[in-house]
């Protein structure tokens, strides 16, 4: 469970950055019709940087759990 919580923390960081920075806290900017159409989705460049940076905090903290 501790490994899952570290992954969830990274995932939450990505979601928060996208919602607050890129979508300006506006839920109407989400297009629900294309959520499962791979060709119409962005390739995820905005998620790569927060995902990598979140591990800068996660990796030193795993020593306490293991």
TrEMBL record:
Keyword terms: Membrane, Transmembrane, Transmembrane helix, Transport
Single GO MF descriptor: transmembrane transporter activity
PANTHER family found in the cross-reference section: PURINE-CYTOSINE PERMEASE FCY2-RELATED, PURINE-CYTOSINE PERMEASE FCY21
Transmembrane segments: 41-61
Identification of the protein by name: Cytosine-purine permease
InterPro entries in UniProt: Pur-cyt_permease_Fcy2/21/22 (IPR026030)
GO cellular component: plasma membrane
Hydrolase in keyword set: no
